Amino acid sequence: MGCISSKNVVAKAYSPSPTVVASSNGFPTSTKGHSALMILDSKTVSEDERNNKFKKNSSKKSNGSLTLRLGLVQRNVEAEQNAAGWPPWLTTVAAEAIQGWIPLKADYFQKLEKIGQGTYSSVFRAREVETGKMFALKKVRFDNFQPESIRFMAREITILRRLDHPNIMKLEGIITSRLSNSIYLVFEYMEHDLAGLVSRPDIVFSETQIKCYMRQLLSGLEHCHMRGIMHRDIKVSNILLNNEGVLKIGDFGLANTITTNSKHHLTSRVVTLWYRPPELLMGSTNYGVSVDLWSVGCVFAELFLGKPILKGRTEVEQLHKIFKLCGSPPEEFWKKNKLPHATMFKPQINYESSLRERCADFPASAINLLETLLSIDSSNRGTASSALMSEYFSTKPYACSPSSLPKYPPSKEMDVKSQEESSRKKTEGKMREVATSRRQQRRITKTLQDPNNFGKATSKEDMQNGGRNDGKAHLTKGKGGAMYKEHSKPPLDVMSETSQVMNVVNGSGYSVPIQVPGSNDAYTWVKRRKQDASSTLSDGSRSKISALDPNFAKGTYDLTTQRVSMDFDPAELVNAQGGKEHDPHWKENGTRHAIRKSRTIEEKKIVMWWKLERNCLRYMLLVGCALCELTRLGKGATGVGWGSISIRGNK
Ligand SMILES: Nc1ncnc2c1ncn2[C@@H]1O[C@H](COP(=O)(O)OP(=O)(O)OP(=O)(O)O)[C@@H](O)[C@H]1O
Known about the structure:
By secondary structure, the protein is an alpha+beta fold. The chain contains 28 helices and 12 strands. The chain has helices at 8-13, 35-58, 63-83, 88-98, 147-162, 194-198, 207-226, 278-281, 290-305, 315-326, 331-336, 342-345, 355-358, 364-373, 384-388, 391-394, 413-449, 460-470, 472-475, 480-498, 521-539, 544-548, 550-554, 570-577, 584-587, 591-597, 601-634, 644-650, and strands at 109-117, 121-128, 134-140, 171-175, 183-188, 192-193, 229-230, 239-241, 247-249, 256-257, 501-505, 511-515. It has a 5-stranded antiparallel beta sheet with strand order 1-2-3-5-4. β8 (239-241) and β9 (247-249) form a beta hairpin. The longest helix has 37 residues, at 413-449. The structure holds adenosine-5'-triphosphate (ATP). Adenosine-5'-triphosphate binds next to β1, β2, β3, β5 and α17.
């Protein structure tokens, strides 16, 4: 679909009078599903022919005329592609990616709801008007048509066209027009992604099901690696599933070709943080397909656990979590792998691997495979093929067939996100109510503390009434205790959900993110993904944005210059050594902190009343002293004690 079906087309691109051949509607139905590969084959042939021709001619002609000829051919191709309906901004930058294809028209499809939101794209479900078949349209955004971002998108297209495997998402065509300023990549529609399924509490994968998914995932990856492609962004939301149980690897936006040239430096700012291998966290620019195997290991564990196994908030924390889980590497590792940021990240403490403890419930053969995939030393991770041949797949229970897998209602990462978003909004509303009620309580306390108001009616009831005004919904019925309960319970839950990371300046002067205990994992996962997506360039927690940055392309990021701005979590490092006194939770003293740290409403109430009563006592004492002093002065005493100076002056 979307491709020119004839082999002639590519050859014609280099012929003197190029003409574009296409079926009447741009859907060469006879070649549907195979066209991309055919074009690639023909491309290879035509390129070989062209190369031979150039080789023969090269002895006769000067270099100058060769360049001229190449330029002309290039211009010819562009003109032909523009004539075929491609927009000029695309043909000038990415002619090779679309070579041999013609664009699809938008009106071939009926665009339905949005089903995915990526860092630089939105994905929609769409129905093909003619056949009623479902497709996924990935609309790619561009940063003001910067050639760099167009080139990135072009790379994704080129790589997708190079791949052809049942476990790899197939690019069916591209929608755009000569006047259009956007582009849609057309993919087969998949009902689920693994992120959506994993995060559903009602879905627990069986052992045979996990094996089935893992076999498909590794088969798809094996194909990529054999075609010289590394994905560099394997994670649950990029693994798609349809209702027939077929798994496909999607999102090749960060994929790149494997390079054997050690002088060719790759960027280390790839792979989403929780799935990023240690060598990339330590700045390696000379890596290979093993980065994908680490990510597969993370996905594998997540399928069993139902949640990500390594959820770091920053690069430092991610690496620290890795060392704690997999054990810190031996001295030889540091000597052998000269990683750019090794000295910065080398742990002071030697950690033993806790992987087997953490995954004690996993089948033995699964732990063995997981241990291999999550090897800190990338050379020990094996390959996708060796993983497929491991005992995990050859021991019972065997992987079930995809068609026997249970059918689920459509579940996507975006569904989870929107559910979380609506519950977040609800809880935020409740939190606002409580905040207003707290403000009111504080106002009352101030009134109590104000000497001008001292003695005015400010009873316990007043305080409760003050709270009640703002908390109507919770406080209209029931006894006092019940009112408190209703009023206070949701905000406490909300606090633990929404104030996951509080920045406290610790002794070292770093801004330290602190995890509030009792947090809701499901929520934080989604929330942190958002943070990741928006903060990549500054803290490197996510890779896509940086992928669009020219510095990313040039590989000119300098992590060392970002060190100070990186969130550093000494709390966790120090706590690993033991000792509450080092914990920033315990450093901050005072009542306000006590209130914030108090877990139950009863504790909270006690602390509030204690504070109130303490202040009342203070003022009573002050007033008492003042009265005594005035009495003494009235009796002619000389100025001593409190207020003596001004009174003496008056005297
Ligand atoms: N073919 C498809 N069928 C159904 N849903 C899809 C398809 N392709 C993508 N999606 C949905 O859209 C989401 C985002 O797609 P994709 O990962 O390709 O975009 P992206 O911009 O590269 O995202 P990210 O920045 O998260 O990597 C996926 O997680 C998935 O839920």
